[in-house]
Amino acid sequence: MAAGPVGGGSGGAQTAWVLNLLTDLAFNLLIFFVVCASSAEDEKGRPQQMPSASKEKANEQKNTNIEVAIARTTVTVNGTEVPLAELKAKLQGMLAGKTRQEEKVVVVKSAKDTPYSQWIRATGAIEQAGGMITLQLEEEREVVR
Predict the structure, then answer these.
(1) What is the tens place of the pLDDT at every residue in 2-55?
(2) Would you tell me the crossing angle of helices 87-95 and 116-129 to the nearest 10 degrees?
């Protein structure tokens, strides 16, 4: 059996077949040039710093912030217990060389049984020392299986 146009051998079917072939060829060439152009060297635009998912940077940022934990009877600064009367002076010393607002962030953690009066005195001392209070409402924990 000879390969040829279906439908009695009219010239219109062969013309349609050629047009379909040319359309497919043009489409494939278009895709080829788009792919080639996308691998070309990009133009230089405005430089941007993208945040990284590095745990080291997150830990570094966490370590730069001062952490104050307020409990029912005690106040700790970065894990060291400090009498409430000395909290302002301690924080002033720690914040002395910092000039930008983001450097003066003080993360405040509060125990559930902390009296309101204790919390107010501690946060007042932080504000008087020049710190910017940030509350840590929930702590993210990584689940290891």
Answers:
(1) 555 555 556 678 888 888 999 999 999 999 888 877 765 666 655 656 656 555
(2) 30
Alpha-carbon dihedral angle through residues 85, 90, 64, 74, given to the nearest 10 degrees: -30
The neighbour count for residue 72, using CB atoms within 10 Å, is: 10
Q: Which CATH number fits domain 65-135: 3.40.1260.10, 3.30.70.1020, 3.30.420.270, 3.30.310.10?
A: 3.30.420.270
The pair of structure tokens assigned to 116 is 């309101």
Place of tokens 């080291």: 56
CA distance 32 to 19: 20
Going from N- to C-terminal start, the domains of the chain cover: 11-39, 65-135
